[in-house]
């Protein structure tokens, strides 16, 4: 009994892609890309995301405020907004096209389904790379600013937030999901070639046997 078939591989790729897409979507909107805690006032924690800046205090709790101007944002956040938007758009489109190309979804012809799976794999790769790129850009600028000797030692510095790690996880999951789509297509092509090779063992058709009787 074969457990790893093209059908199972297609569904595994779709599951991994959907998980990476949801993780990237959450990463885009949660305001925990960077965090900062002041040594002078340990009761305050600052959080920064792509769309909001938040302040947490024990007395009030967490308070968030949207950025007033896009042009006033640092260049790394502006680029990250664009790339994450591309990632979410391509990821959603990849999931829809992958579902239509699944084996068992009787909407299109097999040849068109193969093209849809390849297209989904390419879109998923683009979605994964455009998730990893902004996370890596913000991570690089955070490290550079953290070790900048031009700032006084008593001045608080931004550090990595939880969204950075969830973004890396979602980006790698999307890249893996796109790779699995290509593997599923290759597995389907291999099975198709085996069936078309002359002399290959093909399933035998069942023949119905009849019992010959004579009337005395």
Automatic annotation (TrEMBL):
Signal peptide: none annotated. Gene3D superfamilies: 1.20.140.150. GO terms for cellular component: bicellular tight junction; plasma membrane. GO terms for molecular function: structural molecule activity. InterPro entries: Claudin (IPR006187), PMP22/EMP/MP20/Claudin (IPR004031). The chain crosses the membrane at residues 12-33, 82-105, 117-143, 163-185. It is found in: Cell junction, Tight junction; Cell membrane. Its main location: other. It is a multi-pass membrane protein. Keywords: Cell junction, Cell membrane, Membrane, Tight junction, Transmembrane, Transmembrane helix. Belongs to the claudin family. This is Uncharacterized protein. It comes from Periophthalmus magnuspinnatus.
């Amino acid at each position: 009994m074969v457990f790893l078939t093209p059908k199972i591989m297609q569904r595994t790729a779709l599951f991994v892609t959907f998980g990476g897409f949801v993780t990237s979507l959450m990463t885009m909107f949660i305001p925990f890309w960077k965090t900062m805690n002041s040594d002078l006032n340990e009761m305050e924690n600052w959080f920064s995301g792509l769309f909001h800046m938040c302040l947490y205090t024990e007395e009030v709790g967490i308070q968030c405020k949207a950025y007033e101007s896009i042009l006033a944002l640092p260049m790394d956040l502006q680029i990250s907004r664009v790339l994450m938007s591309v990632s979410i758009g391509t990821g959603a489109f990849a999931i829809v096209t992958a579902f239509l190309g699944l084996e068992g979804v009787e909407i299109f012809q097999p040849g068109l389904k193969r093209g849809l799976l390849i297209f989904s794999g390419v879109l998923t790769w683009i979605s994964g790379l455009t998730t990893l790129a902004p996370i890596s850009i913000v991570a690089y600028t955070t490290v550079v600013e953290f070790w900048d000797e031009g700032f006084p030692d008593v001045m608080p510095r931004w550090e990595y937030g939880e969204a950075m790690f969830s973004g890396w996880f979602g980006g790698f999951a999307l890249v893996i999901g796109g790779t699995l789509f290509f593997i599923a297509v290759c597995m389907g092509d291999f099975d198709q070639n085996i069936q078309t090779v002359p002399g290959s063992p093909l399933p035998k058709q069942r023949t119905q046997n009849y019992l010959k009787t004579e009337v005395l």
